[in-house]
Amino acid sequence: MAFEWLHIAKRLQSIAQSGLEYGYDKYDLERYQMIREISVEIMQNFTDAPVEKIIGLFASETGYQTPKVDVRGVVFRQGKILMVREGIDGNWGLPGGWADVGYTPFEVAQKEVWEEAGLKVMPQRLLAVFDKAKHPHPPDRYHVYKIFILCDDLGGDIKPGMETLDVKWAGRDERLPLSAPRITQNQIDTMFEYFDNPAKAVMCD
Fold it and tell me: For 48-184, where are the alpha helices, taking DSSP H only?
């Protein structure tokens, strides 16, 4: 039930943001602002976060609202997949993060693998584009698309970066404690399907 209301709050926020950007009638603008305030109230009731923080993170953008983009680098070595231990929660995931303005998706994947795992790679192909809301992640204040990009391992040692606590090559049967906001076991299993079948078609929700 809480997840459904969070989803409703995000939809209301999206409608309000578009209306505030493109509306011109002052009465309509007042109504859109009221919708935005309702969305903040719903979010606050289900997250217990301070209203000021919610407004700053969730209801302060302008322009037409679009999903955020999370890019993950997928790297294999001798049948094992590259994993990083996230500094933010101490659990494991694939190297990656928010897409940076000014970088292509391939460049983001290459940059994130280097920064989080100390490994030089060459991006090769898009594997999957997932809608985060369609997978068993915890609820998120944003609507997020997750992009998985296969990268060639150029060799060398791995080492953690500023945002990671550890790095390792994980076998397909290992069940590490995963950073649930960033990765699911099913997504890891799907990446191994691409290792087994390089011709597997790109997946998209």
Answer: 51-58, 105-117
Cα separation of the two ends of the chain: 23
Alpha-carbon span 186 to 78, nearest angstrom:
21
Residue that wins the pLDDT comparison between 40 and 187: 187
CB 84 within 8 A of CB 166: yes
- Written as six digits, the tokens of 175 are 């069940």
Q: Report the half-sphere exposure of 200 (CA within 13 A, side-chain side).
A: 15
Write out the residue range of the structural domain in which residue 111 sits.
Answer: 68-204
CATH number of domain containing 110:
3.90.79.10
Listing DSSP states for 80-119 in one string gives EEEEEEETTTS-EE-SEEEPPTT--HHHHHHHHHHHHH--
Count CB-CB contacts under 10 A for residue 101.
5
Q: What is the pLDDT of residues 100-115, one digit of tens each?
A: 878 999 999 999 999 9
- Beta-bridged to residue 81, according to DSSP, are 76, 170
Indicate whether this model's pTM tops 0.85: no
Token pair, residue 82, equals: 């590259």
